[in-house]
């Protein structure tokens, strides 16, 4: 029997509610099979750790998780600590430290979800957004001088490298090729940003020659927001820069019904380091600690984690259980217009997976 070693990092806010829920689902799954087991190790990094130690995670923290098979992450973000400290001190430290350069964000309208686009059939919206996850606008290059003085100046420099753009473009073409429609949209802003984004366009043309069976087109990022709403079925796989894809994927999540449903994987395609799976939402200060968080985004992230481990049948079983639960509106959390709690949704998914304990409880 294979034992997968999983690091869980709940982080802050509702991350502390949804990551244990995700772990429960993985445990329920493992209890129904002899094929694999999980060995979890939890890390209490985040805002509370910062209050005690002055850092979001230990300096040598990456070494503690380097040998894991995967990481399940919640959220970094604390009401009392500036966001750039929490984000750079934890999530980006892991993404960059493990060179997880491909951020993959699938979006679909799950059964039972009342999505806001009224002229869009559920099957019209089936996208995967590939976000460049290691450089670009979030490279961290820049500086600030003369703070507080009238001559104060600040820069955030977007940095693109040929190596960085080529590898994300190749990843996106390969992903598009693996999907039934073999359709890729390359998103840019190469009219206004005339250096790096023009290089991005040129590299797209070059890499496309390696994938003659993939149809592809180009769209400017502003126009693509309108296209997502007006012609959702014209899109399938999408590749965009760190900033552009960050914004587009929140829009995509909202169009699919809720930010609480959307998953993501921060992937090291070369598998030199563990990849990290997380819901795309943040700490949700307005609902944290109340048991109202929708755990579906985390469960879908667990599905991506299982796929990354090569456990495709198990991934399919979890996704089917999640879809059966979303199809039942009495199991919708408040973000979907329902009244179910995080714990109720989690128990329902575990029960559908046939967890022996849940089955015994039902029989009793
Ligand atoms: P957010 O995603 O935390 O919340 C936005 C809105 O969506 C809120 O109204 C929230 O209640 C709702 N929401 C989000 N997830 C939900 C869920 N699972 N169930 C139900 N409702 C949900 O975004 P924000 O308010 O911009 O950010 C709050 C904090 O989280 C900030 O500190 C930010 O930096 C951080 N953040 C972290 C990450 C990350 O670690 N990956 C991502 C985004 C935001
Ligand atoms: Mn984001």
From TrEMBL:
<dbReference type="Pfam" id="PF00180">
    <property type="entry name" value="Iso_dh"/>
</dbReference>
<dbReference type="GO" id="GO:0009027">
    <property type="term" value="F:tartrate dehydrogenase activity"/>
</dbReference>
<feature type="domain" description="Isopropylmalate dehydrogenase-like">
    <location>
        <begin position="5"/>
        <end position="349"/>
    </location>
</feature>
<comment type="similarity">
    <text>Belongs to the isocitrate and isopropylmalate dehydrogenases family.</text>
</comment>
<keyword id="KW-0520">NAD</keyword>
<keyword id="KW-0464">Manganese</keyword>
<dbReference type="InterPro" id="IPR050501">
    <property type="entry name" value="ICDH/IPMDH"/>
</dbReference>
<protein>
    <recommendedName>
        <fullName>D-malate dehydrogenase (decarboxylating)</fullName>
        <ecNumber>1.1.1.83</ecNumber>
    </recommendedName>
</protein>
<keyword id="KW-0560">Oxidoreductase</keyword>
<dbReference type="InterPro" id="IPR011829">
    <property type="entry name" value="TTC_DH"/>
</dbReference>
<dbReference type="InterPro" id="IPR019818">
    <property type="entry name" value="IsoCit/isopropylmalate_DH_CS"/>
</dbReference>
<keyword id="KW-0479">Metal-binding</keyword>
<dbReference type="InterPro" id="IPR024084">
    <property type="entry name" value="IsoPropMal-DH-like_dom"/>
</dbReference>
């Amino acid at each position: 029997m294979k034992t997968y070693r999983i690091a869980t990092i709940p982080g802050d806010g509702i991350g502390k509610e949804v990551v244990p829920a995700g772990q429960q689902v993985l445990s329920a799954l493992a209890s129904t099979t002899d094929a694999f087991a999980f060995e979890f190790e939890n890390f209490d990094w985040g805002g509370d750790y910062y209050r005690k130690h002055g850092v979001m995670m230990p300096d040598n923290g990456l070494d503690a998780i380097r040998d894991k098979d995967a990481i399940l992450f919640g959220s970094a973000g604390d009401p009392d600590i500036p966001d750039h400290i929490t984000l750079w001190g934890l999530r980006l430290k892991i993404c960059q430290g493990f060179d997880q350069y491909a951020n993959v964000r699938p979006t679909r309208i799950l059964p039972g979800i009342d999505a806001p686009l009224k002229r869009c059939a559920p099957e019209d919206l089936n996208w995967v957004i590939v976000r460049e996850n290691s450089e670009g606008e979030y490279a961290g290059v820049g500086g600030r001088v003369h703070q507080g003085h009238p001559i104060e100046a600040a820069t955030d420099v977007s940095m693109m490298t040929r190596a960085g753009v080529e590898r994300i473009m190749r990843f996106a073409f390969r992903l598009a090729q693996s999907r039934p429609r073999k359709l890729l949209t390359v998103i840019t802003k190469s009219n206004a940003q005339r250096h790096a984004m023009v290089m991005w366009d040129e590299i797209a043309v070059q890499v496309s020659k390696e994938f003659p069976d993939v149809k592809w087109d180009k769209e400017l990022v502003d126009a693509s927001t309108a296209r997502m709403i007006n012609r959702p079925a014209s899109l399938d796989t999408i590749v965009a820069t760190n900033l552009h894809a960050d914004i587009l994927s929140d829009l995509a999540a909202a169009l699919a019904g809720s930010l609480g449903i959307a998953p993501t994987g921060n992937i090291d395609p070369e598998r030199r380091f563990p990849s990290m799976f997380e819901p795309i939402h943040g700490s949700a200060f307005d609902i944290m600690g109340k048991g109202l968080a929708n755990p579906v985004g985390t469960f879908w992230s667990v599905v991506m984690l299982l796929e990354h481990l090569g456990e495709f049948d198990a991934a399919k079983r979890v996704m089917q259980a999640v879809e059966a639960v979303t199809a039942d509106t009495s199991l919708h959390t408040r973000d979907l217009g329902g009244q179910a709690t995080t714990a109720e949704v989690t128990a329902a998914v575990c029960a559908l997976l046939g967890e022996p304990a849940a089955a015994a409880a039902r029989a009793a």
